[in-house]
Specification:
- The complex is a heterodimer of chains A (318) and B (288).
- Chain A has 318 residues and is of the alpha/beta class.
- Chain A contains twelve helices and eight strands.
- Chain A has one domain (31-284, 294-308): Rossmann fold, CATH 3.40.50.300.
- Helices cover 38% and strands 16% of the residues of chain A.
- A seven-stranded mixed sheet of chain A has the order 3-4-5-2-6-7-8, with helices on both faces.
- In chain A, a hairpin with a 7-residue loop joins strand 4 and strand 5.
- In chain A, helix 2 packs across helix 12, helix 3 (64-75) crosses helix 4 and helix 5 packs across helix 8.
- Chain A is globular, with a radius of gyration of 21 Å.
- With 288 residues, chain B is an alpha/beta fold.
- Chain B has a single domain, classed as Rossmann fold (3-Layer(aba) Sandwich), CATH 3.40.50.
- Chain B is built from ten helices and nine strands.
- In chain B, a hairpin with a 5-residue loop joins strand 3 and strand 4.
- The chains are: A alpha/beta (318), B alpha/beta (288).
Chain lengths: 318, 288
């Protein structure tokens, strides 16, 4: 469970006072905030339960947060891929991110609030399913700004600051099809994404057993054009990524995603997410041999303890 | 003669979900022999003013008084099992629905509620089928707007003046999300001992009854996330889902119900319900 940050001491008391002629102000107990989790919260969760970390990486505006909110939205209506919603320590955090795509916002067009540059935060979702080893599994998703990944792309030192990378069970590299269909933009976008992946590998933050999933996000932009040129480009780009990185990682896969399609009616809301969820739940690099020895510079802070459980040894072969 | 047992049952529910109407109908039912009920009033004991007040309103087809937000009324009933003769005292806190909304929005609850939870042997969670917020997305609503001749915008269009978003207000979150959080709060308390028996009551059942679905099917269709949560956490919350019409119908159309004997206005639907007017059967399940 998440810890509770300090609340305004008189939050409910003020409301009670305003609604009552002779207010009786009761003693109040703080409950979990439901906000995004920080590393300390994650460490507590991870001690208590098996957790799978999904890193969602990509530049600003490629659809990272929309991917997560759309998965959460799917559970609002029915189980996904046979898995049911079981718990979330971050319900208000999900709700805030969904707000601009809901009619409750009184908008006529959907949007997603941009994730601000700053600290690393996580969203939490527990799902249940008969084929899961314990009947349920906790998923943690990074909710990190695109700026952070742009910095990591440009500097291996910056990349090494993103400690969560080395803990990832799944690394999602998002490539924005809205840009990939534009000839003047496509190679620039492809280059940036491949450079980010290279930086993560060269800095030692992603190990040789990493599960890398390239997501063609906003795939409805590809579907609406359906040109042979675009199809050929995607084949070519995929081939290049496989050639460059296929031998350096545990598994490299490619998935078409349209989390919130607007361009074609043939792709439904959350296109590709059910398959992704199934993949995340069924595959983990840690099921294979992996050196989990903690680093020798083990500290006592919760974030350091968390890191010690997850960081691959520094001599992990590349 | 065995000692009288004492049970605490917590009533959980957002505003206007039928908590007080349930208590009012229950207090009337257990005092009268109009229908057979599993539990009967054993004796009056202590202050019954509040229960009498709400039961009087119920019997007179008047809305029961709204529970004040700063009120933490604790009501008790001394009841007897009609079959075994065993007597028991059932206590319920009648909290306002707003106090549960505040748990979600302000992330706090009162010491009084916490104390009651600590002693509770089960709970009843109330859901109204008349008013609840669904997680409707803009992309779901736009085709309807278009069908009705309205204008819709695509994602790439410039927002118009009406598109200025209101700031996020947690109170407008889907009802099912708020309910999940209320149960997560309960099971997160250090004294929580699973399984916690939870009767989920869909109130005003005379309305959804027309859809010819069971209460469980109705809940799965209208509150799917909450239904998934209950199924996923059956080891934490052992639940039974009921449809209950405590009033028996709409008081604005009381001609349809005034000819009925008061206790027969009550309708209870759910698995293993033997008497469709017996509001005490869900209580009996909670104490089994």
């Amino acid at each position: 469970m998440s810890t509770t940050p300090p609340q305004p001491p008189s939050a409910i008391s003020q409301i009670l006072a305003s609604k009552s002629e002779a207010p009786v102000v009761p003693d109040l107990i703080d409950l979990p905030s439901g906000k995004e989790l920080d590393e300390a919260n994650v460490a507590k969760l991870e001690v208590a339960r098996p957790v799978r970390l999904v890193v969602v990486a990509g530049p600003v505006g490629c659809g990272k947060t929309t991917l997560l909110t759309s998965l959460y939205e799917l559970f609002q209506w029915k189980p996904v891929s046979g898995y049911s919603f079981a718990w979330s320590d971050t319900l208000p955090a999900f709700e805030r991110r969904c707000y601009l795509s809901r009619i409750a916002s009184e908008r006529s067009m959907q949007d997603t609030e941009r994730t601000p540059y700053g600290q690393v935060r996580y969203l939490h979702l527990r799902v249940s399913g008969e084929d899961l080893p314990l009947g349920e599994l906790d998923l943690l998703f990074t909710d990190v700004s695109g700026e952070s990944f742009e910095r990591a792309r440009d500097s291996t030192l910056e990349c090494q600051r993103l400690g969560f990378l080395s803990q990832a069970h799944h690394f999602l590299l998002l490539m924005d099809c809205e840009k990939l269909v534009r000839k003047e933009k496509r190679w620039e976008v492809a280059h940036d994404s491949m450079t980010l992946l290279r930086s993560c590998l060269d800095s030692g933050m992603l190990a040789s057993n990493s599960l890398i999933n390239v997501l063609w996000t906003k795939f409805d932009y590809f579907e609406v054009v359906k040109s042979p040129d675009n199809a050929q480009f995607l084949i070519q780009l995929r081939g290049e990524i496989e050639k460059e990185f296929g031998a350096r990682v545990g598994r490299l896969s490619f998935t078409e995603v349209a989390a919130r399609p607007t361009q074609v009616a043939t792709l439904k809301f959350g296109h590709g997410l059910a398959e992704l969820l199934k993949y995340w739940l069924s595959s983990s690099p840690h099921d294979r041999a992996m050196n989990l020895l903690p680093p020798t510079t083990l500290g006592s802070r919760e974030s350091e303890l968390f890191a010690s459980r997850h960081f691959p040894a520094s001599d992990e072969p590349q | 003669m065995s000692a009288q047992t004492s049970k605490h049952i917590v009533l959980i529910g957002l505003p206007a979900t039928g908590k007080t109407s349930f208590l009012a109908a229950l207090w009337y039912l257990v005092q009268h022999s109009q229908v057979l009920s599993a539990l009967r009033l054993d004796k009056l004991d202590g202050d019954s003013k509040y229960l009498n007040q709400i039961a009087q309103a119920w019997a007179g087809y008047k809305p029961v008084p709204h529970t004040r937000i700063d009120s933490e009324t604790l009501v008790s009933m001394s009841l007897k099992d009609a079959q075994t003769g065993q007597t028991m005292t059932l206590s319920f806190p009648d909290l306002s629905g707003e106090s549960f909304t505040l748990q979600w929005t302000m992330r706090q609850f009162t010491q009084g509620y916490d104390n009651f939870l600590r002693q509770a042997s089960g709970g009843i969670l109330f859901i109204s089928p008349l008013k609840y917020a669904k997680p409707i997305r803009i992309d779901m609503a736009n085709p309807l707007v278009e069908e009705m001749g309205g204008d819709q915008q695509g994602e790439g269009d410039a927002p118009d003046a009406t598109s200025t978003p209101k700031p996020w207000d947690p109170e407008r979150a889907p009802t099912q999300v708020q309910l999940v959080e209320l149960l997560q709060f309960i099971s997160g308390r250090d004294y929580f001992r699973p399984p916690f028996r939870l009767a989920v009551i869909v109130s005003a059942w005379d309305k959804p009854r027309q859809l010819k679905k069971s209460p469980s099917d109705w809940l799965a269709h209208e509150f799917p996330l909450f239904h998934q949560f209950l199924n996923s956490n059956h080891k934490l919350f052992e639940s039974a889902i009921y449809g209950v019409s405590a009033q028996g119908g709409d008081y604005n159309q009381r001609d349809a119900i005034v000819d009925k004997i008061p206790s027969e206005r009550i309708e209870v639907v759910g698995a293993n319900i033997r008497n469709p007017h017996d509001l005490t059967e869900p209580l009996q399940w909670l104490m089994r």
